[in-house]
Design goal:
Blueprint (H helix, E strand, L loop, with lengths): L1 E5 L2 E6 L2 E5 L4 H5 L4 H9 L13 E2 L6 E6 L3 H10 L6 H9 L4 E6 L4 E2 L4 E2 L8 E2 L2 E7 L5 E9 L1 E2 H6 L4 H5 L5 E9 L9 E8 L2 E9 L7 H9 L8 E4 L17 E6 L3 E7 L1
Parallel strand pairs: 5-16, 7-13, 8-18
Antiparallel strand pairs: 1-2, 1-4, 1-13, 2-3, 5-6, 9-12, 10-11, 10-16, 11-13, 14-15, 14-17, 17-18
Bound molecules: 2,5-dioxopentanoic acid (DO4) and magnesium ion (MG).
Length: about 280
């Protein structure tokens, strides 16, 4: 079952049929502990939509915060060590990769987040920018994983690499986050065979493509959630990005007009243009 937030309200997709949930907000739904069960029941009493327009989809976020885990794939550890080698920061990333406590940082709010079809941004003062395609957990107020979406943790690698203390500036700015297209509502784990793929088109040809299997994710999603919830309250629920395992070559930087497509098969494709 998938949940979409659209310009006309929330919509549930089940067995290729779309059901509208009139008057029910994304905040109401994401604050529930029983989202999968609630939606199963709700669609049995909801009208079937005659037409579902992909163009009507908006980011599935309102009052939720977006947090992100980092250095959760071996490939990310290597990339971070490389970009920070001149600043002597490489050792931190090596240590956090194998430490018991994961790296978790604040990433975004709804105002900085775009949905599928929206425009992500690169910072005006950055000259090495990349998308980071990440499986994103949808977490209830009590810390239950109630669904999955696709996240793009847009990042300024030069700013992050200059000094690890610049991480918030490299990660948190207007248009630095994309989420969507919708939420795969499920409280079970995704299979280890799940693939995340990234394609970046420039002038109608593929400039970069890559993929990574979820089997390469070093941290258990439930453990990441457990650390996030320690001494934190999320009354509206929250999103937790699980880190990137796909890193374009160091010669690559995003440019205005690039189209970024991130696919995670059971969830869908998150597609954004760079403003
Ligand atoms: O440590 C910096 C951030 C790393 C990150 O965002 C990732 O690995 O996805
Ligand atoms: Mg990331």
């Amino acid at each position: 079952m998938k949940l979409y937030r659209t310009v006309a309200g929330c919509v549930v997709e089940e067995n290729n049929q779309y059901y509208s949930l009139p008057g029910i907000s994304i905040d109401f739904l994401l604050a529930r502990e029983d989202l999968p069960e609630y939606l199963s029941e709700a669609i049995s009493q909801s009208p079937v939509l005659a037409e579902f327009r992909v163009a009507d989809i908006t980011a599935p976020i309102s009052h939720q915060e977006v947090w992100a885990a980092g250095v959760t794939y071996y490939r990310s550890r290597g990339a971070r060590m490389e970009e920070s080698k001149d600043a002597g920061g490489g050792d931190f990333y090596d240590r956090v990769y194998s430490a018991e406590r994961p790296e978790i940082f604040f990433k975004s709010t709804a105002s900085r987040t775009v949905g599928s079809g929206g425009k992500v941004r690169i910072r005006a003062d950055a000259h090495w920018s990349v998308p980071e395609p990440e499986l994103t957990l949808v977490v209830s107020p009590k810390g239950r994983i109630v669904g999955y979406t696709i996240g793009n943790d847009m990042s300024s690698r030069d700013i992050e690499g200059e000094n690890p203390l610049y991480l918030p500036q490299a990660k948190v700015y207007s248009g630095s986050c994309a989420l969507g297209p919708g939420i795969l509502v499920s409280d079970g784990p995704l299979p280890n065979s799940t693939e995340i793929t990234l394609e970046i088109d420039r002038s109608d040809r593929v400039e970069f493509s890559g993929s990574i299997g979820l089997s390469e994710l070093k941290r258990d999603p439930k453990t990441l959630v457990e650390y996030l919830m320690r001494d934190n309250l999320f009354p509206s629920g929250c999103f937790l990005m699980t880190g990137t395992g796909i890193v374009p070559p160091s010669s690559f930087t995003l440019a205005s007009g690039d189209r970024i497509r991130i696919t995670i098969e059971p969830i869908g494709t998150l597609e954004n243009e760079v403003a």
